UniProtKB/TrEMBL annotation:
The keyword Lipid metabolism does not apply. This is Tryptophan--tRNA ligase. InterPro entries: aa-tRNA-synth_Ic (IPR002305), Rossmann-like_a/b/a_fold (IPR014729), Trp-tRNA-ligase (IPR002306), Trp-tRNA_synthetase (IPR050203). Belongs to the class-I aminoacyl-tRNA synthetase family. The gene is trpS. Transmembrane segments: none annotated. It comes from Vibrio tritonius. GO terms for molecular function: tryptophan-tRNA ligase activity. The keyword Cell inner membrane does not apply. Keywords: Aminoacyl-tRNA synthetase, ATP-binding, Ligase, Nucleotide-binding, Protein biosynthesis. Its EC number is 6.1.1.2.
Length: 340
């Protein structure tokens, strides 16, 4: 908890999510849970990255616009509280786009080409030679997101490390041009939860592949997802010994079941033989149903009052807009562009 006697400013945190779909269990263990804790001890801003979402969805903009409020509802449903966290919308902060323009003069095309995350995204999205410029340069825009809040801590998954590296290169370059420290370097805060695998155990979680469990999943969807979950393909008969490693049911039990001793017992039994996948899935199903029921209920409640969600975004964006303008002013100063 915050020590009210100390005058030390709180460490600034900035995180964000592309608004391209509702959030799922991977987001929950990987970052949402931590944000709920961090909001009480840190100065936390969470950015709904609608502009970044558009960088590969400009032909289907509804995929972004229709998900903005879903993402905000997901945040609030898991306990991110707008009294403690600034929740803002990227497209409503013009300083971010302006910073991106200035920073892009400091980043070479070949440097962008070396970004491993963007490289693999370009491949998996099948752009071929038709890579949207905005997509190719989104690491620069992400650097704008982070630096605009002078964030020193960025809780992200390890796939985002190249973005933070790029951000810090820009920070060093700007500071060296300025001859003083106008921007601060950031550090990743990697969650100690390992990345949650998709329910098929094969791919990255994605809505189109139907291998993710959304925070708002219905009971029916949760049951279907658990039922189809990848286990041990060699565990054919109940009496056969089964494998835990790579068995997604156990990975999820480890991530979500509150009773660790019970899970340890199940693992032992499964490995020895005599425990069927139907039984382990039943335990997981019950655990997920119980965990997601209150989240789903709150999410539905929030989504029933869109005005309230918009209000949260409006207030958060107004505060964030003001903050980001300060950094923009400092950056313009370096280039001598505060004439008027
Ligand atoms: N690239 C992040 C993702 O795909 C989303 C994001 C946008 C972000 N801006 C950010 C993350 C700033 C951290 C900081 O999930």
């Amino acid at each position: 908890m915050q020590n009210t006697e100390s005058k030390q400013p709180l460490t600034r945190i900035l995180t964000g999510d592309r608004a391209t779909g509702p959030l799922h269990l991977g987001h929950y263990v990987g970052s949402l849970k931590q944000r709920v804790e961090l909001q009480h001890t840190h100065d936390q801003t969470v950015l709904v990255a609608d502009m970044q979402g558009l960088t590969d969805n400009a032909n289907d903009p509804k995929k972004v616009s229709a998900n903005i409020l879903n993402v905000v509802a997901d945040y609030l449903a898991v306990g991110i509280d707008s009294n403690y966290t600034t929740i803002c919308l990227q497209s409503q902060l013009p300083a971010l786009a302006e910073l991106t323009m200035y920073y892009s003069n400091l980043v070479t095309v070949s440097r962008l080409e070396r970004n491993p995350t963007v490289k693999s995204e370009i491949q998996s999205k099948g752009f071929g030679r038709s890579i949207p410029t905005g997509f190719f340069t989104y690491p620069i825009s992400q650097a704008a997101d982070i630096t605009a809040f002078r964030a020193t801590l960025v809780p992200v998954g390890d796939d985002q490390l190249p973005m933070l590296e790029q951000t810090n290169e820009i920070v060093r370059k700007m500071n060296s041009l300025a001859g003083k420290e106008i921007l601060v370097e950031c550090q990743a805060m990697l969650s100690n939860a390992s990345r949650l695998p998709s329910t098929d155990g094969k791919n990255k979680m994605s809505k189109s592949l139907g291998n993710a469990i959304n925070l708002g999943a219905t009971e029916k969807e949760i049951k279907a997802a658990v039922k189809s979950m990848y286990t041990d393909p060699h565990h054919l008969r109940i009496e056969d010994p089964g494998k835990i490693e790579g068995n997604i049911v156990f990975t999820y039990l480890d991530a979500f079941h509150p009773d660790k001793a019970l899970v340890a017992g199940l693992k032992e039994h499964y490995q020895a033989g005599g425990l069927g996948d139907g039984q382990t899935k039943k335990v997981l199903e019950e655990c997920l149903l119980e965990m997601l029921a209150p989240i789903r209920a709150r999410r539905t409640e929030f989504l029933a009052d869109k005005g309230q969600l918009i209000d949260v975004l409006r207030k958060g964006s107004a505060a964030a807009r003001e903050r980001s303008q300060e950094v923009l002013h400092d950056v313009r100063d370096v280039f001598g562009l505060n004439l008027l």
